[in-house]
């Protein structure tokens, strides 16, 4: 009898799962029906969003739609998933219902600026911006273009958030943009974060090196700052102990939450760190929607490379569960993240996040070669999936 594998989310994790199934010749296979569900079937590569803010990409270039050819052999449903019924093995949406024998949940994370008092109001008033969606990154770019100089505050009010280097990269790219446009000398840039150091999930070394890069760019770094509220009218951020910080332009990381409160309650989905299996029979969760604690007790970063690794493991686990294949490889916690440092250079944090007693991760670079490697990765993914391959000559 044909088994039903359903994948929720056609972003980085969900599409990598499809790629893995194709490689294993499991699409158009009489033993298996593969269904992919997404609310809109467009996605982005996270690292292109800071580039939109910087002005190196347009919203159109960053928006990726998987082609029919890339999804050949896959049954697709466009719709918003509202419920996963793990008892009856059913996925429900507003206009659809489908059964599964095995399920992979790859619905990602979503932004909720409303969790910090005053933040959504400051964003609505146009004095605060973020780059955690294509549209908002575009607004942030226009705000930067119009910014005449003064205080730029980069605020990380809560954990977890996607890509542990993204806000630091954002600050460095703002620095880079303002130098290029002759406005850096009359601008102070400060980062206020709830974290004790940058990239805490990578151990102490990479964060220290990143702090040196910030120092070299004359960017102030303020750790352990608990944001209480933001006041758009006075343009002040309120922290603990009545500490305040003024801003003329506020760039913030929006508080994150799981894209859907599914399969195990409203929080991040708890999975086995090596198999990605959830507590529910026949259900795996991958990518940003998971909450994984590494063997050294740190949160595993929410990053594309992790979602890709999870996807390959979960596909193996699901096929094994369905009795279709026997081969599966455990997720090993290896990964990396590029960080743009300006002047078309990138550094890269790379290593083993599962190492003991501490993660074995180092920050290498920055260099022009790493920036080119990042661009190559962007092109490779777009060429694999998207209807419109990106312009290879874009900077
Ligand atoms: C600003 C920014 C910078 C980043 N920089 C980097 C970086 O430099 N390096 C790196 O490795 N990672 C980076 N990331 C993180 C990376 O983008 C994510 O880790 C990766 O996309 C996770 O893949 P995912 O499949 O879990 O989620 P996503 O890729 O977000 O896919 C989730 C999919 O689920 C769909 N969906 C959500 N809810 C529903 C629903 N209820 N019903 C139906 N469909 C739904 C969405 O439409 C989406 O297609 C960055 C992210 C951001 C936002």
TrEMBL record:
Q: Where is the FAD/NAD(P)-binding domain?
A: 4-304
Q: Known InterPro entries for this protein?
A: FAD/NAD-bd_sf, FAD/NAD-binding_dom, SQRD
GO molecular function annotation: sulfide dehydrogenase activity
Out of the domains of life, which is the source? Bacteria
| EC number(s) per entry | 1.8.2.3
Alphabetical list of Pfam families matching this protein: Pyr_redox_2 (PF07992)
* Record keyword Oxidoreductase present: yes
Alphabetically sorted, this entry's keywords are: Oxidoreductase
Protein name in UniProt: Sulfide dehydrogenase [flavocytochrome c] flavoprotein chain
Q: Which organism is it from?
A: Mycobacterium innocens
